[in-house]
Amino acid sequence: MISPVLLFALNGVAILFDLLNRLHDAANSIATSAIVLSPAIGLVLAMLLVLITSWGFRRFTPRAADATFRKLQLLSAAAYSLGHGGNDVQVSMRAVSHADKVRTCEGDL
Q: Is the Cα torsion angle 12, 14, 18, 23 positive or negative in sign?
């Protein structure tokens, strides 16, 4: 004869397995929809940005627009370079920090 405790335990495991399986299916559904929707959302946002930019510069002469965009491109490149350089500094400081930790721990051994 099977004990009631064993039956309750098996039912609990089955219910938990079903719940985890449903969560896994939901996560797969979310990931699949994100893979499909992400490029579409990016396209819509890019088109909106082009519309806003072209509307904002509609009264500029070609020469003035060119001069403005040259300055903005320089500003954008400087910000990108600053961000990239900040990442490099973080990597270097991590190496220095580890080397310092090894140096200070050697005296304790």
A: positive
